[in-house]
Amino acid sequence: MAKLALRGLSKRFGGGARGVLRDLTLEVADGELLVVLGPAACGKTTLCRCIAGLERGDTGEILVGERDVTRLPPGERNVALVFHTHALYPHLTAGENLAFPLRTRRLSRDEIRRRVAETASRLTLTPLLERRPGQLSAAERWRVALGRAVIRTPHLIVCDEPLSQLDGDERAAARAELAALQRALGTTLLYATRDPVGAMTLGHRIAVLQDGELRQLGTPAEVYKRPNHVFVAQLLGAPGMNILHGTAVERRGETSVDCGGFVVPVTLSDYAGQVHLGVRPEHVAMCGADQGQGNALVRAVQPLGAETFVHLDAGGQTLVARLAGLADVRVGDRVGFKLDRQHLHLFDFAQARLA
C-alpha cells in the first residue's frame, strides 16, 4: 500500500479556455479512503484516468508512495482502476475476469487459482465464477470488477463512480461492503462520486471538486458542518443548505442580516453589505405565523414517514425545513419560522455560482 500525492496537476482538452483540472494539489494518506465529490463534468473522471495513466496531465506530478509515476505507462504504476461501466470482458466468466490481470503477469496456475478462490470467497462470488457478465446482476458485476482490482494487490485503487448503475438499496449495500473490504485490506483507495450520501457515509475525508478545482478538503463532519463555500454548502446534504440573499447590517453593536422581509440576528462577523446566509433544513423550525423571525407561505410538503420536508416561500426566498415525523402542515398555510442562530453560516456574496 502507498500514499498518493498530486502536485499542481492540470489538464486541458482541445482549445478550451478553462482546464478540466486546474493546479490540483492533494494527498491521500497510506491506507486512507478518500472520496472525491463533485457534479458531472467537474473533472472526476479525468482525475481518475490521469492517476491510472490513461490520460497524461499537461503540468504537475503524480506520486504513488515515493515514486514519481507521472510519465509512466499504466502497466508500470501498480494502480487499479474500477470504471463506472465495470468494463468486464463479456466473453470471459467471472472467474476468468478475476484471473485476467494475474495471467498477464504470468503467475503460476496454482497461484492464480489460489488468489481467485480467496478473492471470490471474500466478495461472496464463489457460486458465480462460471457465469459470464451477461448472466450477472449489476451488483454482482460490480463485485467482480472490484475483485479484479483487489486481486492484483495494487498500491492504490481508484474507483470512478462504480456504483452509478445500482439502485438505492444495492448502492447502500455495496458502499458498506466496499468500506469493510478497504478496512480489512488497508488499501489506499480514491473513490470518485457525484453522490453526497455516498461521500458522507464512505469517506475518511472528502475532497470537493468544482470545475477542476479543489474547493474544500476535510472529514465528512468538517465539510458538512463548516463548509467554506456556497457550492460546498449546497452540494452536501439532501437537500443541501438553504442559501438566502441579504444585507449584513450592524445596529447597536449587534450584526443582523436583512433578507428583505425578515431580519435574522447572527453572531459577530467580518462581513458587511451583501451576503449569502446559509442554514441547513434541520436548523429551520416552524411556529405560529406571528411568533418567528419571519413568516412564510407553504409551497410544498414532502412527508417521508420519519421526517417531513416543508418548502416555504419567505418573502420571495426559498426555504426548506426538515421536521421530525409527519408534520401537520398543508400547502397554502401561512407559518412562522425560526433559524437556529448557533448553526448559521455567512458566505461572501461574490460566491454567486451555486451548486
Notes on the protein architecture:
The longest helix is centred in the middle third of the chain and has 18 residues, at 168-185. The model has no long low-confidence stretch (mean pLDDT 93). With 355 residues, this protein is of the alpha+beta class. The chain contains 8 helices and 20 strands. The radius of gyration is 24 Å and the shape is elongated. The protein folds into 2 domains: 4-229, Rossmann fold (3-Layer(aba) Sandwich), CATH 3.40.50; 242-348, Beta Barrel (OB fold (Dihydrolipoamide Acetyltransferase, E2P)), CATH 2.40.50.140. It starts with a strand and ends in a 7-residue tail after the last strand. Strand 16 and strand 17 (307-314) form a beta hairpin. Strands 6-7-8-3-9-10 form a 6-stranded mixed sheet, with helices on both faces. Helix 2 packs across helix 3 (109-122) and helix 2 packs parallel to helix 4 (138-150). The protein has helices at residues 44-52, 94-104, 109-122, 138-150, 168-185, 196-202, 220-225, 230-235, and strands at 4-11, 21-28, 33-37, 59-64, 67-68, 79-82, 156-160, 188-193, 205-210, 213-218, 242-251, 254-258, 263-266, 273-279, 284-287, 294-303, 307-314, 317-324, 334-339, 345-348.
The CATH H-level superfamily of the largest domain is P-loop containing nucleotide triphosphate hydrolases
Spatial extent as radius of gyration? 24 Å
Counted by DSSP, the helix tally is 8
Number of strands: 20
Précis, in short:
This protein is of the alpha+beta class. The protein has helices spanning 44-52, 94-104, 109-122, 138-150, 168-185, 196-202, 220-225, 230-235; strands at 4-11, 21-28, 33-37, 59-64, 67-68, 79-82, 156-160, 188-193, 205-210, 213-218, 242-251, 254-258, 263-266, 273-279, 284-287, 294-303, 307-314, 317-324, 334-339, 345-348. It has two domains: 4-229, 3-Layer(aba) Sandwich (Rossmann fold); 242-348, OB fold (Dihydrolipoamide Acetyltransferase, E2P).
